[in-house]
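Chain A, query sequence.
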Amino acid sequence: MLDMSKAFDTIQRRSLLTDLEQVLDNDELHLISLLIDNVSYTVKLEGKLGLPFNTNIGSPQGDSASALFFVTYLANSMKSDDNDIDAVILPSQLVVHDYSTTTTNSFFTVDQQYADDISWASTGQHILQDIEKRVSDKLAVRNLKINCTKTEKFTITRTGNDSWKKCKYVGSLLGTEEDINRRIGITNGAFNTLSNIFKSKNISRKIKLRIFETLLKSNFLYNCELWGTTKDLDCKIDTFQRRLLRNILIIRWTNNNWLSNDELYNETNQTPWSSIVAHRRLRFFGHVARLQEDAPAKVALREALRHTAKPVGRPVTTLLGKIKSQFKDININNFKEAINLAQDRDTWRRLITEHVG
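Chain A, predicted structure.
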């Protein structure tokens, strides 16, 4: 994954305005130019304004549009030249939805760009080296530099180390257990921040549970549809959920108000998080199955389902392996049948809701 510098100099700001001329009208361009072109600042301290000064880097601090400016500039910087057929660097979902290529030597490469998270995955090491050089040269033309110290490179093999599982992409770690542990830490942090609310006797249980749903549940279950959980991890997820609920409701053995697990779920009108993960996993699979054939996720699914020789030993639990095991619950025999059924959104939604919850 390549890490980019995000500060704009004067030349870059001029180039950005030129890029935006292709998609915005004059009034919109004028508003943006007020933010990034020849901007004068003053600092206010204790009610007094300092002397004005000009800046030639970036947009004003706190400007919510600055991230959009950078992503727009980056995308245009990675566009291929019209006459440079071999330099298709920009993820072409922005143009023709052509995401991946398989060369004559059977090397498989997929682009997975989201905002400024720029990544490539390939079965050919030389392909990645070539991409890294071409991207660096391409971006240098518009004064963009790749931060080599923050650029991450991982090699994933069956017998290699697991350092890749701690790689964070679009807010999630690639390893299921690693990401779950991280989510537990984040959710615990949110719970501690809100502890005064949960301990308050002046706030009703209904309000506390609404806060739990909004701020804790959503925090923990972010991207959970990508978790290939084992039985032990499902148990860990549900145990963590119940611990939060008991802390919120102040349920202790010593208080003589202990509730069994089932009673706790009924009392709080909650569903075990492992069941929600299972449901979202199948729902996500349905979304992928309905994508156009050249979409990145669909291409990755097709590659993952390609028949290969099974390695020696017990197979590890993967996302697709977990999904396949869930097919038994909804009376589906294989991925081909599942992909066909998922083409009808309503049928697929009804099927997984009736059998998974």
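Residues 77 and 139 are 6 Å apart (CA to CA). Strands lie at 39-41, 44-45, 48-49, 53-55, 100-102, 108-111, 120-122, 168-169, 172-173.
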